[in-house]
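Lab notes, practical 5.
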Amino acid sequence: MDIFGAVLIIFMTVLSVCDIRMRKLPVVILRAGIALALARPVLFFLVSGPSTEQQRLLSVALLGALPGLTVTALSFISDKVGRGDGIVLIMMGMLENCSFVTTASCIACLTLAVFSGILLALHRVGRNSRMPFVPFLTGAYIVLKLSGGRYGI
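Output from the prediction step:
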């Protein structure tokens, strides 16, 4: 795991705690995370200079941001998805690749569905209750990172 992945885990853990306690994500932390995600291609450019590897890294970062951009667009259309969730996905996507982010978000959605189904069965929440998504996304990110990104069967 590189330094950016370790820092992203710290950011996402802090955001998870904020999402659970306040049901909001602090803008200051989101801005710092986006700055971190943007710093990676810039630092790579300063170290190695313009090259095809730099172009590849930039295209992977832009493609990785697509799932987050999609979720952010959905947050403007519907009230079911938070805008901060999309920004966290953009941040994660710029540091990873698109398939990693898509897999992490699918794992997070599945675990959220199971968890909310259990809470519904126990009558702890209602049908229209809002659930924090970032803690599940953080868990999925950590599991995928610990498995080395190997998510195939």
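Observations recorded by the TA: Helices lie at 3-22, 27-48, 52-64, 66-77, 83-95, 98-121, 134-146. Residues 3-146 form one domain.
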